[in-house]
Design brief:
By secondary structure, the chain is of the alpha/beta class. The protein contains 13 helices and eleven strands. The protein folds into two domains: about 10-305, Alpha-Beta Barrel (TIM Barrel), CATH 3.20.20.70; about 315-370, no CATH class. The chain has helices spanning about 50-60, 80-90, 105-115, 130-135, 140-155, 175-180, 210-220, 235-245, 300-305, 310-315, 320-325, 335-345, 360-370; strands at about 20, 65-70, 95, 120-125, 160-165, 190-195, 230, 270, 270-275, 280-285, 295. Strand 9 (about 270-275) and strand 10 form a beta hairpin.
Length: about 375
């Protein structure tokens, strides 16, 4: 497949960098922090195969066609998932998928996904031990099954990444996780910082200071590990890296992170990213459940371009509080999903960032003086 033109910050207004399409909410796991609060059965109004293909064709019509990630629930619960992957690739999209680690992901299924043109398989691994991970996922044996799938994918040459959600349960296992992943042959470790949405609870979220400590560990591992490291819903990791004269888009150890382009600086919820639910609802991300439209009623291209909320999220100068005066607001902007989840203001400050911009410190000093 020909590599598409690089996506840049100039494309934010007209094309998303990545689209997450929740093809189903059906899933056989009962993960403690599931954004979707997934269920065993699919929703009766889940997009049909025909509607899904129409959506995929519309995505391919963006001026810069996005990376398409099939998520869920568990995409493997869709009978037509191989056809959808193949169709997306034929339409010129790079397609990735985040299946659940269940018996549905057989070696034969992995071979079919590779043959269909899947660019990357992403699996969740939330601890370096079975006890902690399986407690996250709600199913015994999930840890071993995940490792088996990663090994089989490596054997057949299907690129992989690991997604890890940092919570109170595993915050002290970051170093162990990083070392365990060393031998799994992954391209990328995506470290997600919990947003209290779906089944995820506020009490599981770590503090801003603890997040900063995890950033330090990730930055140290990024120097030496044989895979790239990125954060999800922790946009202030970019600030952390820049403060250390690093490049947030490039692994210090020189690892390219696979064949999929790394997101340009500034990508955020609704800003280069959108989420499409199993019933066609468009949101800024899966972690910001604010309806911007429905693909059954309006073209996804028009929704992305014209939604007032998405337009506002793409303008760093509209942010409120300390994010609004932060010198990193155009390349970080804070997690819009976390701001919404904790303050109900999608343009509010990210409550889990310790950084105090100089302009904000001056404002606080003026208030104190008064």
């Amino acid at each position: 497949m020909t590599r598409p033109p690089a996506y840049t910050i100039e494309d934010f207004a007209t094309s998303p960098f990545v689209v997450f399409y929740e093809v189903t909410r059906a899933c056989d796991l009962v993960c403690a922090h599931c954004r979707a609060a997934a269920q065993p059965k699919s929703h009766p109004r889940e997009l049909t195969p025909e509607q899904s293909r129409k959506l995929i064709a519309d995505l391919a019509s963006f001026p810069k066609p996005p990376i398409l990630v099939f998520t869920g629930g568990d995409p493997m619960k869709r009978d037509d998932i191989f056809d959808l992957v193949s169709f997306g690739v034929r339409m010129g999209l790079r397609v990735a998928m985040t299946p659940s680690a269940t018996p549905l992901v057989t070696r034969e299924a992995l071979v079919q996904l590779k043959a269909a043109g899947l660019s990357r398989l992403a699996l969740s691994l939330d601890a370096p031990d079975a006890e902690t991970h399986d407690a996250f996922r709600g199913v015994s044996g999930s840890f071993e099954r995940t490792l088996m799938i990663l090994e089989e994918a490596r054997e057949i040459g299907l690129p992989t990444q690991v997604n890890t959600t940092i919570t109170r349960r595993n915050v002290n296992q970051v170093d162990e996780m990083a070392e365990m992943l060393r031998d799994l042959g992954i391209d990328l470790w995506s470290v997600f910082f919990l947003i209290p949405v779906g089944r995820a609870l506020v009490k599981e979220k770590i503090s801003a200071e603890e997040i900063e400590a995890v950033f330090e560990r990730l930055w140290n591992h990024a120097q030496t590990q044989p895979y790239s490291i990125k954060t999800t819903e922790a946009h202030h990791y970019r600030r952390f890296v820049l403060q250390r004269q690093g490049n947030p888009q490039q692994s210090p150890a020189g690892h390219p992170g696979g064949d999929i382009q790394r997101a340009p600086l500034g990508v955020n919820d609704g800003k280069g990213v959108i989420f499409i639910s199993h019933t066609g609802v468009v949101q800024p991300s899966g972690f910001m459940p604010i309806r911007c439209g429905n693909v059954l009623e309006t073209s996804v291209v028009d929704i992305y371009r014209d939604s007032p909320l998405l337009q506002s999220l793409r303008d760093g100068d509209l942010l409120n509080g300390k994010c609004g005066v932060c010198d990193f607001r155009h390349i970080c902007g804070g997690s819009r999903a976390r701001a919404y989840a904790l303050t109900r203001d999608p343009l509010g400050s990210d409550p889990d960032c310790v950084y105090i911009p100089a302009k904000w410190a001056s404002k606080e000093a003026e208030v104190t003086a008064c």
